[in-house]
């Protein structure tokens, strides 16, 4: 898949995320998607991705900003750095109680692209920073993203 098409695929994925359109997001991934989040278990398959999205929609309202997308020449790999601007709307098991707290968290994702679909999504963020923010600890809400 050429670089331009892969860039469009990932841009479309992020636009769907920001629109809260999980059906669109799910339409862009492979049936055997591998989905990793740094603080959680590996999920394999579109059905597990769907379950993850249902859970996330229940607990969090998020919008991504400052997205910087990089795609390799062959269009088989991509990465993105971004800021997650969110609200914690329902308590997630094992985490602090939700009271509508807001947070701003730097994060990044890596993608593998195969046959015009996203075959792998790996996302990293600092969970402790997020916990500090929703727990009301000071100085935790400013993401550290420096201009080069």
UniProtKB/TrEMBL annotation:
InterPro entries: CHP02096 (IPR011721), NTF2-like_dom_sf (IPR032710), SnoaL-like (IPR037401)
Origin: domain of life: Bacteria
One of the Pfam families matching this protein, by short name: SnoaL_2
SUPFAM superfamilies registered for this protein in UniProt: NTF2-like (SSF54427)
SnoaL-like domain: residues covered: 11-121
Name used for this protein in its record: SnoaL-like domain-containing protein
Biological classification of the source: Bacteria, Pseudomonadati, Pseudomonadota, Alphaproteobacteria, Hyphomicrobiales
């Amino acid at each position: 898949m050429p670089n331009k098409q892969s860039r469009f695929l990932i841009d479309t994925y992020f636009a769907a995320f920001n629109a809260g359109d999980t059906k669109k997001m799910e339409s862009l991934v492979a049936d055997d998607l591998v989905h990793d989040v740094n603080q959680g278990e590996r999920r394999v398959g579109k059905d597990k991705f769907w379950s993850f999205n249902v859970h996330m929609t229940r607990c969090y309202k998020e919008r991504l900003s400052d997205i910087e997308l990089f795609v390799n020449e062959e269009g088989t790999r991509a990465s993105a750095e971004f800021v997650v601007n969110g609200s914690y709307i329902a308590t997630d098991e094992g985490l602090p109680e939700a009271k509508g707290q807001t947070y701003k968290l730097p994060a990044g994702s890596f993608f593998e692209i195969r046959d015009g679909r996203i075959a792998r999504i790996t996302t990293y963020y600092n969970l402790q920073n997020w916990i500090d923010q929703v727990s009301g600890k000071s100085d935790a809400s400013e993401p550290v993203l420096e201009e080069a």
